[in-house]
Design a protein that fits this description.
The protein is an all-alpha fold. It has helices at 3-11, 25-35, 40-53, 60-75, 82-96, 107-116, 118-122, 129-159, 168-191. It has nine helices and no strands. Helix 1 packs parallel to helix 3, helix 3 (40-53) packs across helix 4 (60-75) and helix 6 (107-116) crosses helix 8.
Length: 192
C-alpha cells in the first residue's frame, strides 16, 4: 500500500465527524499527496486533536501546524516564544553583561541577540525598554518564521525528483542552443 493510500485510509473515518466537509475523492487525493511529507502517525494525531478544536474540516495547513505542534511537544523541543526570548536575553544581560560569553537556549535567540547587538542590549535606557522589547521580539519572530519557511521549502525540495543529465556535453549543447535562440529572437525584435 502506498503512503498516499494509507493517508486516505486514515482520513476517511474523520469525514463522519465533519459531514458538511464537501470533500470528494479528488480532494482527498490532493490532501494525501500534500500530507505525504508527514508520518502517518502524526497525521492521525493531528486529526484527533483537530476534532476537538475545529468546527469545519481542517485545511492541509492546519493539519501540518497541529502535527508540528504535537511533534514539538512530544520531543520537548519547543523554541521559546518571543516574550520568553526577550526575558532570556535580559537575564543574560544581568548575569553576564557585555564581556562574558552568553549561553543561549537555542540558535534563534542567539541570532536575534546578535542582530540586535549585545552592546545595545546591555545599554538600553530605562525609558527605551518597551521600544527595544518590541523591536527584539519582531526580529526574533522573523527569524523563527524564516527558519520554519526554510524547513518547509527543504521538505518540498527533498520530495522532488533530482534533475539529472547523464551527458555533460549534452547539457552544454542545450545551453548553447537556448542562448543562440535568445540571440536570434533579440535580433529579430531589433529588425522589426
Amino acid at each position: 500500500m502506498s503512503k498516499e493510500s494509507e493517508i486516505i485510509k486514515i482520513l476517511k473515518p474523520y469525514f463522519m465527524a465533519f459531514p458538511k466537509s464537501g470533500m470528494d475523492e479528488g480532494a482527498l487525493l490532493i490532501y494525501a499527496r500534500a500530507l505525504s511529507i508527514l508520518p502517518v502517525d502524526a497525521i492521525n494525531a493531528a486529526m484527533l486533536e483537530l476534532l476537538t478544536t475545529s468546527k469545519f474540516w481542517p485545511s492541509v495547513a492546519e493539519i501540518f501546524e497541529t502535527a508540528k505542534s504535537i511533534r514539538a511537544y512530544s520531543e520537548e523541543s519547543t523554541i521559546p516564544t518571543a516574550a520568553d526570548a526577550w526575558g532570556e536575553v535580559i537575564g543574560l544581560v544581568k548575569k553576564y553583561g557585555i564581556y562574558k560569553p552568553w549561553d543561549y537556549s537555542c540558535e534563534e535567540v542567539k541570532r536575534a541577540a546578535e542582530l540586535f547587538g549585545k552592546m545595545e542590549l546591555c545599554m538600553i535606557e530605562e525609558n527605551a525598554v518597551n521600544t527595544a522589547r518590541a523591536q527584539f521580539m519582531r526580529m526574533y519572530n522573523e527569524i523563527v518564521q524564516r527558519k520554519e519557511q526554510d524547513r518547509k521549502h527543504q521538505e518540498v525540495l527533498d520530495r522532488l525528483p533530482p534533475l539529472q543529465c547523464k551527458n555533460e556535453a549534452l547539457t552544454g549543447k542545450i545551453i548553447q542552443l537556448a542562448e543562440a535562440k535568445s540571440a536570434m529572437e533579440a535580433r529579430h525584435e531589433n529588425q522589426s
